[in-house]
Amino acid sequence: MRRKGIALLSSLVLFTSIVLSACSSSKELSKIRLGEVTRSIFYAPEYVALNQGFFKDEGLEVELQTIPGGDKTMTALLSNSIDVALVGAETSIYVSQQGSDDPVINFHQLTQTDGTFLVSRKPVDSFDWKMLKGSNFLGQRKGGMPQMAGEFALKKNGIDPQKDLTMIQNIDFANIASAFSSGTGDYVQLFEPQASIMEKEGKGHVIASFGKESGLLPYTVFMTKQSFMNKNNSIVQKFSNAIQRAQNWVDTNSVQDIAKSIASFFPNTDQAIIESVVKRYKEQGTYAMDGIIDEAEWNNLLSVMDSAGELKSKVEWGKIVNNSYAEKAKSGK
């Protein structure tokens, strides 16, 4: 009798192990290697999707890595070191202009304005763009979206970047803020949180937004190669679904809650600074409410690139933009 009981118990344990193993395998997550061009509060919805569990809810395990520089991020995507890139849409246009049998496709927009601000060394009571004439201007990397949007804004306000001021562009992106703090330039074009930190330390003053001046455009976009999209259609859709949920969450939650959600990605940044940055970006409509890249935004991007002399040929909106994933994610179907 005792032997029968032991045998029954052993069978029950074995059965339970099989069931648990089956359940575990059925819930196995699909892995996605995601490369972001920089670590920035500018990308808040991406971090919300990770920390709020939206990717996991979609059955995805996202491995995030930061790859400084649009050229390096695109190289990683083209060489299959990553599956999806979060980078400026202009990089996909550069690849298209070079010709490719496996084009890079933009499938979900994250930010819809430039994220940089004009910072002056001295306080300015009543700012006028003409104040920049004759100044030393510490800009961004030539050919990059921040610099192109910056030049577009300057020209819009009657400033010729090549003739009306001295443009300084020989400093690496990571060192621009420290260079300004050390005395280089009268004005500087900065991303957040560097702009807010500069203000807090009394070393600079935010006087204008390049995002407001350059208008709506697909500034930062999730993109992947056509071959990956063809082989992993459902995974790309799940990815888009998770980001849309994060965009909805950012839209409906408070600045404080958003800052708390993304704080783990910025362990060395003061919580008050994170809140200040999120507030600034929310107020100027930087975070896109959905991933759809419309034709007007795309054409504005082309105008910005053309104005900077970086557009060799016009790349039509429908050629390297696929809105079907973002549209389905937005509809919730």
Can you walk me through this structure?
One of its GO terms (cellular component) is periplasmic space. This is ABC transporter substrate-binding protein. Residues 1-22 form the signal peptide. Helix content is 46%, strand content 16%. It has 333 residues and is an alpha/beta fold. The chain folds into 2 domains: 29-113 and 217-331, 3-Layer(aba) Sandwich (D-Maltodextrin-Binding Protein, domain 2); 116-214, D-Maltodextrin-Binding Protein, domain 2. Strands 2-1-3-10-4 form a 5-stranded mixed β-sheet, with helices on both faces. Strands 7-6-8-5-9 form a 5-stranded mixed β-sheet, sandwiched between helices. It is globular, with a radius of gyration of 23 Å. The N and C termini lie far apart (57 Å). Mean pLDDT is 90; it is low at 1-26.
List the helices and strands and how they pair.
Layout: H1 2-26, E1 30-36, H2 44-51, H3 54-57, E2 60-66, H4 70-78, E3 84-88, H5 89-98, E4 104-111, E5 116-120, E6 136-138, H6 145-156, E7 166-168, H7 176-181, E8 187-191, H8 194-200, E9 205-209, H9 210-214, E10 220-225, H10 226-231, H11 233-252, H12 255-262, H13 271-283, H14 295-307, H15 324-331
Proper CATH architecture of the largest domain: 3-Layer(aba) Sandwich
Q: Whole-number radius of gyration?
A: 23 Å
Helix and strand succession? Answer: HEHHEHEHEEEHEHEHEHEHHHHHH
Mean pLDDT: 90
Largest sheet: 5 strands, mixed
Spatial gap, N to C terminus: 57 Å
Beta strands, count: 10
Query: What is the CATH superfamily classification of the largest domain?
Result: Periplasmic binding protein-like II
Q: Which structural class do the helices and strands define?
A: alpha/beta
Q: How are the strands of the biggest sheet laid out side by side? A: 2-1-3-10-4
CATH first level of the largest domain: which class?
Alpha Beta
Question: How much β-strand is present in the residues?
Answer: 15-25%
What portion of residues is helical? Answer: 40-55%
Number of separate helices? 15
Low-confidence stretches: 1-26
**Could you name the CATH topology of the largest domain?**
D-Maltodextrin-Binding Protein, domain 2
Family: Belongs to the bacterial solute-binding protein SsuA/TauA family.
Keywords: Signal
Main location: periplasm
Subcellular location: Periplasm
